Amino acid sequence: MKKLTLFGVLILMLHSTIMISAQKQRTDDHKNVSKLLDNLNIFAASADFKNYFDLYAEESTFIGTDATEIWNKKEFMAYAKPHFDKGKAWNFTSLKRNITFSKDGQYAWFDEILDTQMKICRGSGVLEKIAGKWKIKQYVLSMTVPNDVSNEVIKIKAPVEDLLIQQLKKK
Question: Sheet holding 56-63: strands in order across?
């Protein structure tokens, strides 16, 4: 009976140790992903091209605010280089951020409200842990449109986007 009780206590201790370790890993991952996203904004604001793009996985996608802006890493780098060369690319500050992790801890997805030169935008995306480091696999930048002014915004963008809609329907 004593052996059975001792075995039960050992199992409980092992389970507790595993749970504490897993919780610490989740906390560390949350801090690391949040730091990566903060650095993304810092590196853009300081025009640090190399460090900014080192945060992206080699096979990654950036989706911009214009419907035609869907770029792989190389294409996004080509687009961004002239902006970074001017000494300041863009300056975003996170106002609110949500981060969620896959059960296996290898993927994270996020959404955040950003203060930008375009006013409030939303950044969202997916990160993957590659060789022990978090990397951006997809980043989506969206301008927000308050519901109270959406009809006016639609009127302004309709002529441009109607043409694009027709072009896309032909493909």
Answer: 70-72, 56-63, 133-143, 119-130, 107-116, 93-101
122 vs 26: CA distance, rounded Å: 24
The pTM score is 0.84
Distance CA 153, CA 161 (A): 12
In which residue are the tokens 């939303």 written? 122
80, 62 Cβ separation under 8 angstroms: no
Q: What would the pLDDT profile of 103-147 be if each residue is shown by its tens digit?
A: 999 999 999 999 999 999 999 999 999 999 999 999 999 999 999
Parent domain of 158: 2-170
* Tokens linked to 41: 């904004």
- Domain of 133, CATH number, reads 3.10.450.50
Distance CA 144, CA 90 (A): 17
Say how many domains are in the chain.
1
**34, 97 contact by CB (below 8 A):** yes
Residue 139: both structure tokens together: 């980043």
Interstrand relation of 107-116 and 133-143 (parallel, antiparallel or unpaired): unpaired
Q: What whole-number distance in Å separates Cα of residue 120 and Cα of residue 116?
A: 6
Close Cβ partners of 68 (under 8 Å, ≥ 6 residues apart): 164
